[in-house]
Automatic annotation (TrEMBL):
<dbReference type="GO" id="GO:0008168">
    <property type="term" value="F:methyltransferase activity"/>
</dbReference>
<feature type="domain" description="Methyltransferase type 11">
    <location>
        <begin position="53"/>
        <end position="139"/>
    </location>
</feature>
<dbReference type="InterPro" id="IPR052939">
    <property type="entry name" value="23S_rRNA_MeTrnsfrase_RlmA"/>
</dbReference>
<dbReference type="Pfam" id="PF08241">
    <property type="entry name" value="Methyltransf_11"/>
</dbReference>
<dbReference type="InterPro" id="IPR029063">
    <property type="entry name" value="SAM-dependent_MTases_sf"/>
</dbReference>
<protein>
    <submittedName>
        <fullName>Class I SAM-dependent methyltransferase</fullName>
    </submittedName>
</protein>
<keyword id="KW-0489">Methyltransferase</keyword>
<dbReference type="GO" id="GO:0032259">
    <property type="term" value="P:methylation"/>
</dbReference>
<dbReference type="InterPro" id="IPR013216">
    <property type="entry name" value="Methyltransf_11"/>
</dbReference>
<keyword id="KW-0808">Transferase</keyword>
């Protein structure tokens, strides 16, 4: 027997969205992962360096999954619930978590790190990344690409302005990295299927990934959510596509 719209809404509104762990969606939504395996790549790079920085670490879950952290490991985060979560997770591993507003400058000295990493950063300050990297150092990041989950955004907000579909394009990331003096040594892009199997999964996702539908609340979008619930009940899922790109850039020696 399927659950009612009100039950699904109440459950999704009550659950915590702190951190960057999406395990609550297990069995309720699915998304194909990029083929390159970001956490494995990040872990390999961390094992080769003496000092590293993870920018916008979220709740620290991705960094904590690395096999071994370097002797000097720092992470930044701006959202207070995530700062507390990341501190509890990463401090026992020897990593320092620094509260940072995600605005330049980064709170570190010039040429402080051999490696800078970031998974799904909201903003990328390329000049600051170049500044804190040592000569020969590397920036490795998996980022959300252009028009990611556009189907879901359009369902709630209507068709986007044409320029919005270009935002976060990997070609722009390459150009900005090179303008900061970095050499892009790897750039890969993939468009991946994703599906939501109940309206509660959609609510949880939009509460957590706040830039998909800015200003999203259940109360504000209740009518559209109810229509979406009926659609998922009839069709089995709401489908969309997420876009991701991997970029690796090196500071010249």
């Amino acid at each position: 027997m399927s659950r009612t719209f009100e039950d699904l809404v109440a459950e999704a509104e009550a659950v915590s969205v702190d951190g960057w762990d999406f395990s609550w969606l297990h069995g309720r939504a699915e998304e194909q992962r990029p083929s390159w395996g970001y956490q494995r790549l990040m872990s390999e790079r961390l094992g080769r360096v003496s000092a590293a920085l993870d920018i916008q670490t979220g709740g620290g879950e991705v960094l904590a999954g690395a096999r071994r952290l370097p002797p000097v490991m720092a992470a930044t985060e701006s959202w207070p619930p995530n700062i507390a979560r990341a501190t509890g997770l990463l401090h026992p591993l020897g990593a320092l978590v620094v509260a940072d507003a995600d605005e330049p400058p980064l709170p570190f000295a010039d040429e402080a790190f051999d490696l800078v990493t970031s998974r799904h950063p909201v903003t990328v300050w390329w000049q600051e990344i170049a500044r804190v990297l040592r000569p020969g150092g590397t920036y490795l990041s998996q980022q959300v690409g252009h028009a990611s989950v556009a189907e879901l955004a359009e369902y709630f907000l209507g068709p986007p302005p044409p320029g919005d579909l270009r935002r976060r394009h990997p070609d722009d990331a390459r150009r900005e990295a090179e303008a900061a003096g970095l050499e892009v040594v790897d750039l890969r892009f993939e468009s991946l299927p994703m599906a939501f199997f109940d309206v509660g999964a959609v609510i949880y996702f939009l509460r957590k990934v706040i830039w998909i539908v800015p200003g999203f609340t259940v109360e504000r979008h209740r009518d559209r959510l109810r229509e979406l619930h009926d659609r998922i009940e009839a069709e089995g899922a709401f489908t969309a596509r997420s876009t991701r790109f991997l970029i690796e850039a090196r500071k010249p020696a």
